[in-house]
Design brief:
By secondary structure, the protein is of the alpha+beta class. It is built from two helices and ten strands. Helix 1 packs antiparallel against helix 2.
Length: 134
């Protein structure tokens, strides 16, 4: 068994033992099982899945980092939402606003552009999770 902890700036989202974890890593999806080699990796907005008691659970997470040891996966992310927590209309509206703002950002304001691109990616990850089980 593997200890999984998912933490956002607001609260601890999850802390329990799981069979496996799949993370949206910087280089693509990454699977973690017990006795995995130790590492620290950046996370991109996407779907985090884990198996607990034979049932697969999924969360849409934002950017962050994961620390993996042989017995534990610690996920530090700016947001984590389950399917029931996602308001599809609100996510679509937020994504549209960010896309409109991105069109207006000057080429010199790379920081603002990066922020808006990350916002769009996070909204897209939430929408993808919400729409996956229709």
């Amino acid at each position: 068994m593997l200890q999984l902890e998912i933490v956002t700036p607001e609260k601890k989202i999850f802390s329990d033992t799981v069979s496996d974890v799949y993370l949206p890593g910087a280089g693509g999806e990454m699977g973690v099982l017990e006795l995995h080699a130790a590492l620290v990796t950046a996370l991109h907005p996407g779907e985090l899945r884990y198996e607990k008691d034979g049932e697969v659970h999924a969360l849409a997470i934002g950017s962050g980092f994961a620390e993996v040891t042989q017995e534990k996966v610690s996920v530090l992310t700016d947001s984590a939402y389950g399917e029931d927590d996602i308001d599809e209309a609100a996510e679509e509206a937020a994504m549209k606003r960010a896309e409109e703002q991105l069109e207006k950002v000057s080429a010199e304001d790379a920081e603002e552009a990066a922020y808006l691109q990350a916002t769009i990616a996070t909204n897209a990850a939430r929408l993808q999770l919400k729409r996956k089980h229709r």
